Amino acid sequence: MPQRLTQENKSAIIEMIIGFHGKISWQLIIDEIFVRLGIKVSRQALDRHSEIKRAYEVRKKSIQGELSNKPQVRTGAVALVKSLEKIQRLESKNEILIAENKALKEQFIVWAYNAYIKGLDEEKLNQPLPPINRDRSR
User: Fold this and answer.
1) The whole model's pTM is what?
2) Is residue 79 part of a domain?
3) Domain count, the chain
4) Is residue 80 domain-resident?
5) Dihedral of the alpha carbons of 26, 29, 33, 34, in degrees to the nearest 10
6) Section 34-61 average pLDDT
7) Using the 8-state DSSP alphabet, how is residue 120 labeled?
8) How far apart, in Å, are the Cα atoms of 45 and each of 83, 92, 100?
9) Which residue range is the domain that position 73 belongs to?
10) Which of 9, 19, 82, 124 is most buried, judged by most C-beta within 10 A?
């Protein structure tokens, strides 16, 4: 039976996707999740999590670009190969963060518009949160 994904699992899955090399597909990701985390998930379950879906889409585009622009490396240059892999991993992570930032900006625009429609001004929106009363029990 599929398990509910925790935030820790989501982060691990995103890291897996970022580090993926070669052909990528949802089934390959699902298989890797089962091997590494021991969790059975469906493609639909992964697709429901916007951050996982975004990471997959960005990494898929990135891999397509890598395969067409793959640099030729001599077999003896192990340090260079590791450096290139690290650069590719960081570039993939950067692309995912850029996509996530764009999505958050779009969400902010929706919130700002809805706040404007409801008559909320910047002063009301910037009010601090009320203090938490930890002594009170129910």
Assistant:
1) 0.56
2) yes
3) 1
4) yes
5) 70
6) 88
7) -
8) 34, 23, 19
9) 7-119
10) 9
